């Protein structure tokens, strides 16, 4: 990878955008920034570069998303599936066609958002389900390992619960902190970062505090309905990106 001004600027902007999303929504929309990095490096290199940075973002984000914002009953149901899913995703990463996974996830996500639109954009609260939580955690673990796209499965479980905006963001933040800690070593083993990649990581670390803080400030100004509308809108953007990845390869 050629370490030039364009590469540095695009990478820094992509990392800043991901940090902003983590500050505003707690996590789950990291895929928004990955297309930017793919303009200056291949996707696997981008994944390896982001893996350690995700940990820095998440740990810094916990400064704002404290334990009082975590839905502990949901995390207890979700995290075991996440752990198993990351293990499965690591195995599948080396043998499966990632495009097929992207297309399936995009289709499921768009159907989920479509049902929300049919209901007039209102969140229909549903009771907790252990089986749905395990399925969401497992699917999120697989997709976050394969394509850094674990947000949609988690959102499809959490959004219908009608959590407050702070609890929703705090729960997703801790969920992906655990996931990113677990998948960092497998991703580094798959990507094997070189000297230029480590240099980019060090430069991009400077984007973490300001990006997370700015996102958190925006979150603080959103009301409950705006927060959920933005989350559903971001799911559409994420799904379209997954669909593009799957179709265009």
Automatic annotation (TrEMBL):
<feature type="transmembrane region" description="Helical">
    <location>
        <begin position="99"/>
        <end position="118"/>
    </location>
</feature>
<feature type="transmembrane region" description="Helical">
    <location>
        <begin position="195"/>
        <end position="215"/>
    </location>
</feature>
<keyword id="KW-0813">Transport</keyword>
<keyword id="KW-1133">Transmembrane helix</keyword>
<feature type="transmembrane region" description="Helical">
    <location>
        <begin position="167"/>
        <end position="189"/>
    </location>
</feature>
<feature type="transmembrane region" description="Helical">
    <location>
        <begin position="75"/>
        <end position="93"/>
    </location>
</feature>
<keyword id="KW-0472">Membrane</keyword>
<feature type="transmembrane region" description="Helical">
    <location>
        <begin position="7"/>
        <end position="32"/>
    </location>
</feature>
<feature type="transmembrane region" description="Helical">
    <location>
        <begin position="44"/>
        <end position="63"/>
    </location>
</feature>
<protein>
    <recommendedName>
        <fullName>Probable membrane transporter protein</fullName>
    </recommendedName>
</protein>
<comment type="similarity">
    <text>Belongs to the 4-toluene sulfonate uptake permease (TSUP) (TC 2.A.102) family.</text>
</comment>
<keyword id="KW-1003">Cell membrane</keyword>
<feature type="transmembrane region" description="Helical">
    <location>
        <begin position="227"/>
        <end position="244"/>
    </location>
</feature>
<dbReference type="GO" id="GO:0005886">
    <property type="term" value="C:plasma membrane"/>
</dbReference>
<dbReference type="InterPro" id="IPR052017">
    <property type="entry name" value="TSUP"/>
</dbReference>
<keyword id="KW-0812">Transmembrane</keyword>
<dbReference type="Pfam" id="PF01925">
    <property type="entry name" value="TauE"/>
</dbReference>
<dbReference type="InterPro" id="IPR002781">
    <property type="entry name" value="TM_pro_TauE-like"/>
</dbReference>
């Amino acid at each position: 990878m050629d370490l030039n001004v364009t590469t540095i600027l695009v990478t820094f902007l992509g990392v800043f955008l991901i940090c902003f999303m983590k500050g505003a929504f707690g996590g789950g929309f990291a895929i928004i920034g990955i297309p930017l990095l793919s303009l200056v490096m291949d996707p696997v290199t981008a994944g390896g570069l982001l893996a350690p940075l995700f940990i820095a973002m998440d740990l810094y984000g916990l400064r704002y998303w404290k334990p009082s914002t975590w839905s502990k009953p949901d995390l207890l149901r979700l995290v075991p599936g996440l752990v198993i899913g990351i293990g499965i995703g690591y195995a599948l990463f080396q043998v499966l066609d990632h495009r097929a996974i992207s297309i399936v996830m995009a289709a499921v996500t768009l159907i989920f958002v479509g049902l929300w639109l049919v209901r007039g954009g209102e969140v229909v609260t549903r009771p907790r389900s252990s089986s749905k939580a395990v399925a969401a955690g497992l699917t999120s673990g697989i997709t976050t390992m394969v394509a850094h796209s674990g947000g949609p499965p988690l959102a499809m479980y959490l959004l219908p619960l009608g959590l407050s905006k702070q609890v929703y963001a705090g729960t997703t933040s801790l969920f992906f902190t655990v996931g990113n800690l677990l998948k960092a070593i497998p991703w580094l083993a798959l990507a094997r970062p070189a000297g230029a990649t480590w240099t980019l990581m060090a430069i991009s670390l400077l984007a973490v505090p300001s990006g997370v803080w700015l996102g958190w400030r925006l979150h603080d100004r959103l009301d409950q309905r705006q927060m959920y509308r933005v989350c559903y809108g971001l799911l559409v953007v994420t799904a379209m990106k997954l669909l593009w990845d799957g179709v265009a390869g």
